[in-house]
Amino acid sequence: MYRGVVKSFGGVTVLRNVDIDVDSCEIVALLGPNGSGKSTLFKMSIGVVKPDSGFIRVGGIDPVSNPVEARRAVGYLPEEPLIYESLLLEEYLSFVLSVYGVKASVDEVRGVVRALGLEEHMGKFMGELSYGNKRKAMIATIILRDPKILVLDEVFSGLDVASVKIIRSWLEEKRSRGAAIIFSTHVLPIAEAVADRIVVINNGEIVVSAKPNELKDFFKSRNLEDIYLRLTGYRSEYEEIIRALGHR
C-alpha cells in the first residue's frame, strides 16, 4: 500500500501524492513512460529510497523504519540486475537463499533452474551471463523464497518467449495462493492478459487505476496501447510520427 507518497531529487519532484493499493490475490500492472517514477516507487517498498512525505506498508511493515523486515517480506526484482559477478550461478543461488534463511531442496532448485532454462549456466560466473539470464537468476531466487508480496520492476524485460510464459504462469499461481503482486512493464499485451488492475503513472502522478475492461469501456476502445498513449499524452505525437513515416 502506498499513501500520499511524494519524492523529489535535487528539487525535481518525481512522485506526487501517489496512492496505490495492492490486495491479496491481486495482480496490479504499473504502466508509465521511462522516468515516470515507477522504479523509485518500487525501491521504496524495501526502504532503499525513503519518501519525503506519505507512507508505504508492505504486509503491515513500514520499510522506512524496518527495511530488513520489509526485504524479507517482499520479493523485489530491480530493473537492473544486482548480482555478485565473481560468484558462479550455483553459488549465487545458494548465497541468496542462505541470506534469507531459505532451505530449498536440491530438487526444488533444480526444478526452478530447469524451468527458467538456466541448467547449462550453473557453472558460469554471474558476470559472464547475459542480461536476460542474470534477471532469470534473480527471479529464480524469488520463486524459491516464495514471498507473499511481489514487487517486480520490468519483470519481463530481457526474457525469451518460453521464460515469459513461465513467469506468467508463476504470477497467476502466486495470485491463486493469496499473494499481492505489483509489476511494471512496457509490454502492454502481457499487462492486459495478466493484471487484474492497471495503474498508469505519468510525470510522477497516478493518471488512472482500473480493470482492463473498465478502461476499454470508458475509452470505447479495445486497444490498450491506444488508451495508454492517450493517458500519457503521447497519442498526438505518435500519430504525427506515423503520418510522417507514411509520407516517406
Task: Outline the secondary-structure elements.
Layout: E1 2-9, E2 12-20, E3 26-31, H1 38-44, E4 53-56, H2 67-73, E5 74-77, H3 89-99, H4 106-115, H5 131-145, E6 149-152, H6 161-176, E7 180-184, H7 188-194, E8 197-202, E9 205-210, H8 212-219, H9 224-231, H10 235-246
Parallel strand pairs: 3-7, 3-8, 5-6, 6-7
Antiparallel strand pairs: 1-2, 1-4, 8-9
Helix pairs in contact: 3-5, 4-5
Question: Can you characterise this structure?
Answer:
With 248 residues, this protein is α/β, with parallel strands linked by helices. It folds into 2 domains: 2-210, P-loop containing nucleotide triphosphate hydrolases (Rossmann fold); 211-248, no CATH class. The chain has helices spanning 38-44, 67-73, 89-99, 106-115, 131-145, 161-176, 188-194, 212-219, 224-231, 235-246, and strands spanning 2-9, 12-20, 26-31, 53-56, 74-77, 149-152, 180-184, 197-202, 205-210. Strand 1 and strand 2 (12-20) form a beta hairpin. Keywords: ATP-binding, Nucleotide-binding, Transport. Residues 2-228 form the ABC transporter domain. It comes from Ignisphaera aggregans (strain DSM 17230 / JCM 13409 / AQ1.S1). This is ABC transporter related.
